[in-house]
Amino acid sequence: SLFAQALDARGCEATVFHANGYGGAALSRFLSEGRARALIDLNVHELGRMRLAGVHAAMPDRFVAGRDMPRGVLPGALNFLGLGAIDTVDPAHLTRPHYRHSGHFTHVKLTPDEMAEQADALAAYLNQTRAPCQVLIPMGGFSTEDRPGGAIEDAGLREIAAERLERSARAYSIKCLPWHINAPEVAEAAVATLTTTMQQEASHA
């Protein structure tokens, strides 16, 4: 990924976990065992799967494991609900903008109220961190189809997320970026901020 490449360019070894439930559980264990120095949480898709879809096993430490290490967090996939194959999705969900991610998964755009609730929930987790934490908000889009012409594009949802996350910030800082989450500039900004923080933390140790 662009993030792993940017970390590699700075001499940092990256381990990537897929935000699919199994990956999140493995990440939590990896961090709890002290196997990482810092974290970039790029995709928070599991938050919706746990809170709205109810299809993941409980992962109470998914967003707080390793709370004593520096982290950068992005709202990747915060704008949609990940459901199953399209023929298994509740018809009420299919009245919303949606698309088939694959034959097995359907992504349904959140409502404004759901986005506000999800942003508040993410903020509550991040306010439990005890090390520098920066939330980078890519105002050009939170996911592949959240872009001009995309199936679930919605700038208004991004504004809601930014406003709620900024309003609730206690233990983290916020920075809005003009680009889409998949833009190289976003990866560069996240990695540059995190590695600078890691260097500062090391110098004070």
Question: How is this structure best described in words?
Answer:
The protein is α/β, with parallel strands linked by helices and 205 residues long. 40% of the residues lie in helices and 16% in strands. It has helices spanning 2-9, 22-32, 45-53, 91-94, 112-126, 155-168, 184-204; strands at 39-43, 71-76, 80-83, 98-100, 106-109, 133-138, 173-177. The strands form two sheets. It has a four-stranded parallel beta sheet with strand order 1-2-6-7, sandwiched between helices. The relative contact order is 0.16.
Radius of gyration: 17 Å
Helix amount, in percent?
Answer: 40-55%
- Nearest-integer average pLDDT: 94
| Percent in strands | 15-25%
Order of helices and strands: HHEHEEHEEHEHEH
Structural class, from secondary structure content? alpha/beta
Task: Give the tags.
single chain; alpha/beta; 7 helices; 40% helix
Short summary:
By secondary structure, the chain is α/β, with parallel strands linked by helices. It is built from seven helices and seven strands; from the N terminus they run ααβαββαββαβαβα. It has a four-stranded parallel beta sheet with strand order 1-2-6-7, with helices on both faces. It has a three-stranded antiparallel beta sheet with strand order 3-5-4.
